[in-house]
């Protein structure tokens, strides 16, 4: 059976599994009465349909919970089925909505047993029926009937990935796992868009023009039945079924050797002792056969319904029916928790378009994963607020629910004690806005500390806070959740370039928030571009409290004068923390807010997007790219114009833990004067990056664009504050420009809904965004309502798209034309 597999192989001892209180999940049955289902997925066409693969050779469609009677595709007469053979998976082209192309992986006797990778197309006249014309892309001989692999997945790069087992029998008798010239025991990567003959090999595959099969992306695999990409950061998780003793989970890298048959899991297999592990990659987790017998890989949960599961990789064992969650706490440290034993054979997992996860029961059902009620997205943290003669904090809270939302706003002092509480009631879809929230809490001048915004009846919220100085807007704090806190944070840009009062120079203040119930002991390391630690500082942050360290560079280096340094901060803590920094203009004392990045949130990945970069006379883009790994990293930076056309590229080698910094990136790559558009930052070696950009005007820092994961784009976004409060040139008034980035392969059509304080719809507009491009709409309120609409509008925007998008806004001071950046929320 597809599930009689055994385990895999690898290096030194696997990282220890850490203990924690397990999460809990449940399963809701959504489809029953199937015949040996082995996979479920979606088409990425915004139809909401699920496609179910039956082993015998049929693909069925479920729409709105109901099975459509006629199969989408029935090729059972072509498929050799039984045991581990059959129709094993389907993958839909990233542009399926327009080109109707999809791909299947099945076994067939022609006349000898082969794995067939074939292309079909959906009918042009009936979207629930496929044409029966087959185009064979690839045939691979199978020497035995087991270990066929079977997974197909399109990666974030648009290429098709294929999992191939070692050819079967037991113990890899033909040695395929370590033979790079064989396609068996491998993960393959091919380009199905650039060749009329079927496919071509991507030029950056690791074994192109060297010894080995050009199609190979990774090797040393026994039977990679299921693998998947984390849609938030592009990381590739692979479950490799083991031999006699161990099942393993791998994070796949370009060209990686995962050990079979030298090793099974993290243990020597052939030979059984004393094996040479040089060059083999470590599994991130393994378990022995006391817990199961055949691992079924799953997905990292990135849905919105159960935030407690966010970032957790769900997987199972076919034989023991255990479902586990695997969560990374620090880089390379993983916690495995058993979540459920449903009592049936789990053949696969699947995702729908919204990132919700499904479990496939080989006995005939599809079950949706549900979690316990969570207050994570109903309780958000604003990292800092102030009330002084120079600064006030504006708070904007959106009720994301369709019913009334009772909300408590709580302010705390730096020591974590409560200083004030305000209770409000939000109408369905409505919002609350206060331009001086600490004043609204009746707090005195000089008050300073974090805010929590919590729904008392467990409804979804989105929050944002704006630090307002007497000179205008200083920056935004997006509402954070408990889930985004971690024990490692990075501040990507810290500086000490001059003395106070010196124009054109800056300093950095650091803020750290402790979200735990115990004191946090935090080590702050200052790191230079070569990855060298220049100095450290230990701080203690009270439970639920906040600590600010002024001029952090001088504080760490114990310097009383300007050091001229540019670097980044790495914070490691024994409790989950959040962190932020304010980059302060020494000439004006105006700050710009930069929020820290953790290691498992959307701002870390192998391919990142800077939503907007500028090379105009007024604005330049400063770019910082950090290698988060302990080994060197190659990066490729690609600048595009608004139409998505490439206008420049740059490659760089980053040392371990080092960084690249450019004060005028578009100028450095020779982009045409006046260029403006998105920027992608990609790791050529598949290693994790952190990135941030700063829009710099002639007057100083205008704001930070945090990098967002290219794989984390969604079909819906909310921009929590948009305004039109006066005419240009009028002091203390503002307007909002909107930016939309299309991460899809075709033009995005985006519905823009402008929503008022009581949830009322003020107006709508449709925008189009080119593939890989950016559309900016100036003064979005006037654009939607008309140029003669009255000023004084405060609202929020809801964006609904047919392609994955990111969205952002710049709130512009009408008197100075200086912008501050606010990112859209999924």
Note the topology.
Elements: E1 26-31, E2 37-41, E3 50-54, E4 58-63, E5 66-67, E6 73-74, E7 87-92, H1 96-99, E8 101-109, E9 113-121, E10 135-141, E11 152-154, E12 160-164, E13 186-190, E14 216-219, E15 226-229, E16 236-240, E17 246-251, E18 263-264, E19 267-268, E20 285-288, E21 295-300, E22 313-317, E23 323-330, E24 333-340, E25 346-351, E26 357-361, E27 365-370, E28 379-387, E29 391-399, E30 405-412, E31 418-426, E32 431-434, H2 437-440, E33 447-455, E34 461-469, E35 472-478, E36 486-496, E37 506-514, E38 520-527, E39 533-541, E40 546-549, H3 552-557, E41 565-585, E42 591-595, E43 604-605, E44 607-614, E45 619-627, E46 633-640, E47 646-654, E48 659-662, H4 665-668, E49 676-683, E50 689-697, E51 700-706, E52 708-709, E53 714-724, E54 734-742, E55 748-755, E56 761-769, E57 774-777, H5 780-785, E58 793-813, E59 819-823
Antiparallel strand pairs: 1-27, 2-3, 3-4, 4-5, 4-6, 7-8, 8-9, 9-10, 11-12, 12-13, 13-14, 15-16, 16-17, 17-20, 18-19, 21-22, 22-23, 23-24, 25-26, 26-27, 28-33, 29-32, 29-34, 30-31, 30-33, 34-35, 36-41, 37-40, 37-41, 38-39, 38-41, 41-42, 43-50, 44-49, 44-52, 45-48, 45-50, 46-47, 46-49, 50-51, ...
From the spread of the alpha carbons, the general shape counts as globular
What Rg, in angstroms, do the CA atoms define?
27 Å
Q: How many helix segments?
A: 5
Bin the helical content.
under 10%
- Kindly state the number of beta strands: 59
Oligomer: single chain
Hey, roughly how much beta strand do the residues contain? over 45%
Weakly predicted, low-confidence segments: 1-21
In CATH terms, what is the architecture of the largest domain? 6 Propeller
| Largest sheet entry | 7 strands, antiparallel
Whole-number count of domains:
4
Structural class: mainly beta
The overall pLDDT average reads 89
Quote the distance from N terminus to C terminus: 41 Å
CATH class of the largest domain: Mainly Beta
CATH fourth-tier homologous superfamily of the largest domain: TolB, C-terminal domain
CATH topology of the largest domain: Neuraminidase
């Amino acid at each position: 059976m597809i599930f009689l597999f055994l385990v895999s192989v690898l290096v030194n001892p696997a990282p220890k599994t850490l203990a924690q209180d397990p999460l809990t999940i449940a399963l809701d049955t959504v489809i029953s009465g199937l015949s040996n289902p082995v996979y479920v997925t979606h088409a990425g066409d915004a139809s909401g349909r699920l496609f179910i693969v039956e082993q015998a050779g049929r693909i069925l469609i479920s729409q709105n919970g109901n099975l459509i009677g006629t199969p989408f595709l029935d090729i059972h007469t072509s498929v050799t089925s039984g045991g581990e053979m059959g129709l094993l998976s389907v993958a839909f082209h990233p542009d399926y909505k327009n080109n109707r192309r999809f791909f299947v992986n099945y076994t067939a006797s022609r006349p000898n047993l082969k794995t067939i990778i074939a292309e079909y197309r959906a009918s042009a006249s009936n979207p629930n029926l496929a044409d029966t014309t087959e185009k064979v892309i690839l045939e691979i001989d199978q020497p035995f009937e087991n270990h066929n692999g079977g997974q197909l997945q399109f990666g974030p790069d648009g290429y098709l990935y294929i999992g191939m087992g070692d050819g079967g029998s037991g113990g890899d008798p033909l040695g395929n796992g370590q033979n790079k010239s064989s396609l068996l025991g491998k993960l393959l990567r091919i380009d199905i868009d650039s060749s009329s003959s079927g496919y071509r090999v991507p030029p950056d595959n690791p074994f192109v023009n060297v010894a080995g099969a050009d199609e190979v992306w990774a090797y040393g695999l026994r039977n990679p039945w299921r693998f998947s990409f984390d849609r938030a950061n592009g990381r590739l998780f692979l479950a490799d079924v083991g031999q006699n003793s161990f099942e393993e989970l791998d994070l796949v890298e370009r060209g990686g050797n995962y050990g079979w048959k030298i090793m099974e899991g993290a243990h020597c297999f052939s030979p059984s002792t004393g094996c040479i592990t040089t060059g083999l990659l470590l599994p991130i987790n393994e378990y022995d056969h006391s817990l199961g017998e055949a691992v079924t890989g799953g997905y990292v949960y990135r849905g919105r319904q159960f935030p407690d599961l966010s970032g957790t990789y769900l997987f199972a064992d076919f034989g023991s029916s255990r479902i586990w969650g695997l969560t990374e706490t620090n880089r390379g440290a993983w916690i495995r928790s058993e979540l459920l034993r449903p009592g049936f054979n789990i053949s696969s997992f699947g995702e729908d378009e919204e990132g919700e996860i499904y479990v496939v029961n080989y006995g005939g059902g599809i079950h949706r994963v549900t979690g316990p009620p969570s207050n994570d997205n109903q309780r958000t943290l604003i990292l800092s607020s102030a009330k002084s003669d120079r600064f006030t904090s504006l708070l904007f809270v959106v009720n994301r629910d369709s019913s009334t939302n009772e909300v408590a706003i709580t302010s705390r002092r730096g020591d974590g004690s409560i200083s004030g509480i305000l209770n409000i009631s939000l109408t369905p879809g409505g919002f609350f806005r206060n331009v001086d929230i600490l004043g609204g809490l009746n707090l005195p001048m000089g008050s300073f500390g974090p805010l929590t915004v919590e729904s008392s009846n467990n409804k979804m919220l989105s929050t944002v806070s704006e630090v307002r100085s007497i000179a205008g807007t200083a920056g935004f704090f997006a509402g954070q959740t408990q889930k985004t806190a971690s024990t490692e944070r990075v501040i990507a840009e810290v500086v000490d370039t001059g003395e106070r009062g010196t124009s054109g120079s800056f300093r950095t203040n650091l803020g750290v928030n402790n979200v735990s119930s115990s004191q946090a002991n935090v080590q702050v390391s200052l790191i230079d571009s070569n990855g060298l630690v220049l100095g450290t500082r230990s701080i203690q942050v009270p439970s639920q409290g906040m600590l600010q360290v002024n001029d952090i560079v001088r504080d760490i280096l114990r310097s009383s004068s300007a050091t001229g340094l540019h670097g980044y901060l790495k914070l490691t803590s024994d409790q989950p923390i959040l962190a932020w920094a304010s980059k302060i203009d020494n000439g004006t004392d105006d700050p710009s807010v930069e929020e820290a990045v953790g290691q498992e949130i959307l701002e870390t990945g192998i391919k990142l997007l800077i939503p907007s970069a500028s090379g105009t006379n007024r604005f330049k883009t400063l770019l910082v790219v950090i290698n988060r790994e302990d080994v060197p990293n190659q990066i490729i930076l690609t600048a595009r114009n608004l139409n998505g056309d490439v206008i420049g590229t740059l490659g760089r080698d980053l040392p371990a833990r080092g960084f690249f910094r450019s004060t005028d990136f578009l100028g450095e790559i020779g982009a045409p004067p006046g260029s403006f558009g998105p920027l992608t930052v990609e790791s050529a070696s598949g290693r994790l990056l952190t990135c941030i950009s700063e829009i710099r005007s002639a007057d100083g820092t205008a704001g930070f664009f945090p990098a967002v994961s290219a794989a984390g784009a969604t079909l819906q976004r909310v921009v929590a504050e948009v305004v039109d409060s006066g005419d240009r040139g009028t002091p203390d008034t503002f307007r909002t420009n909107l930016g939309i980035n299309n991460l899809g392969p075709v033009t995005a059509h985006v519905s823009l809904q402008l929503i008022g304080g009581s949830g009322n719809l003020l107006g709508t507009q449709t925008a189009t965004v080119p593939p890989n491009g950016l559309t900016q709409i100036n003064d979005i309120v006037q654009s939607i309502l008309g140029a003669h609409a009255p000023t004084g509008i405060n609202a929020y925007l809801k964006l609904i798209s047919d392609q994955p998008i990111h969205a952002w806004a710049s709130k512009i001071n009408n008197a100075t034309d200086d912008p501050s950046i606010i990112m859209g929320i999924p």
